Amino acid sequence: MDSRQSSREIMPFHSFRHAAPHVSFVMLMLFFSMYGRVLLSPLLVYLQQDLGVGPARATRLFLTISLAYSPVMLLSGFLGGRLVHRQTIALSSAVIGLGLIVIALAPTLVWMHVGAALAGAGAGLYPPAGVAAVTGIVRDEIRGKALALHEVGPNLAFVVAPIIVSVATLGVHWRWIPGVSGVAALVAAGLFDRLSIAGGFRGAPPHLRNVTAILRKGEFWAILVFFSLAAAATMGVFSIMPTYLVTTRGYPVALVNGVISASRISGLVVVFLSGILLDWIGVRRLMITVIGLTGLLTIAVGLLSGTPLLIAVLFQPLIIVAFFPAAVSAMADLGPPEVRNVAVSLMIPGVNIFAAGLFPALMGYLTEIGAVGAGFVGLGMVMLLSLVLTRLLDG
Fold first, then answer.
1. How many domains does the chain have?
2. Which of 14, 157, 194, 351 ranks highest by number of CB atoms within 10 Å?
3. Which percentage of the chain shows pLDDT scores above 70?
4. Mean pLDDT, the chain, as a whole number?
């Protein structure tokens, strides 16, 4: 352990006020982790026009991101035993930045897939290290609030991505957007590694003993199902929603991006409230409420039209954001602090392949055959049926 690392070792914060600046720095890195993956969604219309491809081929980029993301996360546990979590988080942002730059310069769809793979691989490094870093610098009594602040990162990415695309494409070619974003991610990586005090410790590698102990828990499998469905209702739906509303429903691009951004901006408030609700009503009750309401709203997106459809589009992502602080807190309870990175690395890869890869690819196919509404209805119905698994959760 070098002197720079040891000089930044801290005891967990008792006060959220004192922890907030440090959690916010980690949250910024989570923002880039999610932003690098969702930026392609509002750019998809422009990308299709530029390269002359249809929705089915274009949405396969999300599958490439997922296929790169998941194995890297599985292997990240071994990296976590060699690097401190802070260094892994910084490396994550740097690889994402490189991937976005490749996308900006890509002359063909093949090179787009190369950039998407880099962005996915970089993002795959983040979750085990990020969750361990945040939960490691706060006491359990303020963990709900810290995780709520941490989860502002991905929700902010959902807000910022369509706004940046809507504004920037008025004056510059769409390729400037991933290019400049990639440079920003590289700068953030350097600053975080140099300045952050969070994540100054190593994680446990995924030994068979740790893996077996986690996989034997019924809570693990219940959280895996809920996380997969919630992620599909968030990132999977977000990835196809602009194309669905513009191509299938005929709404103007500016209106679509405005409604989607408004829902994500409101979600920033909800994610803070979810931290309070988590400490108040517990994981199980919060998950039942959020999964149930989101299932109903997702069905509505597939069935409604006109103004009611836009209202459903506005509220569907607004509700589901409350799920993630509860889910991350539940994952953290699957084991002691030194194996939390292992629990995350076991769960998220499968979640990501389904929610951010297979589901968008399926929805792209359904869009081309004119049956995309059935995809939303099917997802919502499965979410409602999954509520029977909440009996496996504590609290």
1. 1
2. 351
3. 90
4. 82
Q: What is the pTM of this model?
A: 0.69
Give the pLDDT score at 295.
94
- Cα first-last separation, the chain: 39
Cα–chain center distance at 360: 14
Contacts of 50 (CB under 8 A, 6+ apart): 174
Q: Is the CB of residue 373 less than 8 Å from the CB of residue 302?
A: yes
How far, in Å, CA of 234 to CA of 367, rounded? Answer: 18
Q: In angstroms, what CA-CA distances link 310 with 63, 260, 300, 305, 344?
A: 27, 9, 10, 8, 34
Return d(Cα 138, Cα 146) in angstroms, integer: 7
Return the C-alpha torsion angle 32, 38, 39, 45, nearest 10. Answer: 180
Provide CB contacts within 8 A for 180, sequence distance 6+.
none
Rounded CA-CA distance 16/138 in Å is 8
Exposure of 201 by Cβ count < 10 A (0-12 exposed, 13-18 middle, 19+ buried)? Answer: middle
Per-residue pLDDT, averaged over 47-55, amounts to 83
Task: Quickly tell me which residue has 């509404």 as its tokens.
Answer: 373
> 241 to each of 6, 150, 314, 346, how far by Cα in Å?
46, 25, 11, 29
For residue range 245-302, list pLDDT tens digits in order. Answer: 887 888 887 788 788 777 777 777 777 777 777 767 777 888 898 999 999 999 999 9
DSSP state of 12: P
Residue 342 CA to residue 210 CA, distance in Å, equals 8
Query: Mean pLDDT across the stretch 131-140?
Result: 79
**CATH code at position 29:** 1.20.1250.20
User: 306 — alpha (psi -120 to 50), left (phi > 0) or beta?
Assistant: left
**Total number of residues shown for the chain:** 395
* CA–centroid distance for 82 within its chain: 25
* Segments forming the whole domain that contains residue 288: 3-392
CA dihedral 358, 364, 368, 372 (to 10 degrees): 90
